[in-house]
């Protein structure tokens, strides 16, 4: 039989990087979308911050619903 290819520490690290990457992707995406309407730098920063918040909330929701479904 073949055992797991990743140790627990590697899996935790990979999950954290995936979550951070997802949050950053949503935040950057919000900033890029805001560039379509010729915003001020403050508005771009605000949209990136709002996107980061939305990304974080999405990750929390996804993790919570995954844990509920695997009980």
From TrEMBL:
Q: Which organism is it from?
A: Halobium salinum
Q: Where are the transmembrane segments?
A: 20-37, 43-63
Name used for this protein in its record: PEP-CTERM protein-sorting domain-containing protein
Keywords associated with the record: Membrane, Transmembrane, Transmembrane helix
Q: Which domain of life is it from?
A: Archaea
């Amino acid at each position: 039989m073949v055992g797991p290819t990743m140790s627990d520490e590697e899996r935790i690290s990979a999950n954290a990087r995936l979550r951070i990457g997802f949050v950053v992707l949503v935040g950057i995406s919000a900033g890029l979308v805001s560039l379509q309407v010729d915003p001020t730098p403050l508005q771009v920063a605000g949209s990136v911050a709002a996107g980061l918040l939305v990304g974080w909330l999405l990750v929390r929701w996804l993790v919570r619903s995954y844990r509920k479904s695997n009980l």
